[in-house]
Amino acid sequence: MKPYPAWTSFKSPVKFRIPTAENIVPIRLDIEIDGQRYRDTFTWNPSDPDSEISMFAKRTVKDLKLPPPFVTQIAQSIQVNIVVVARNFCG
């Protein structure tokens, strides 16, 4: 009998809602703080339980070495994008 690889896990699989046109939100960010600018476009799945806006913002700022005030602005901008799309989608 072969041993299982170290990365094998017996935990139950994460429940994930497959992205569809109904639950994917287009996000456009254009933020400027103290002369430094961050622009990005991507899609966001708000129904994904592993998608936390604040964690995404923190990781983005850390990865791109942006000043800390960008965390709040990125998180707020994503939230606004989601609300706008939800209003337009729901009527």
From TrEMBL:
Transmembrane segment boundaries: none
Highest taxon listed in the record's lineage: Eukaryota
Cellular component GO terms, alphabetical: nuclear chromosome
Localization annotation: Nucleus
GO annotation (BP), single: chromatin remodeling
InterPro entries for this protein: SNF5
Keywords linked to the UniProt accession: Nucleus, Transcription, Transcription regulation
Principal location listed in the UniProt entry: nucleus
Keyword Transmembrane helix: no
Family as reported in the entry's similarity comment: Belongs to the SNF5 family.
Descriptive protein name: Chromatin structure-remodeling complex protein BSH
Organism: Ambrosia artemisiifolia (Common ragweed)
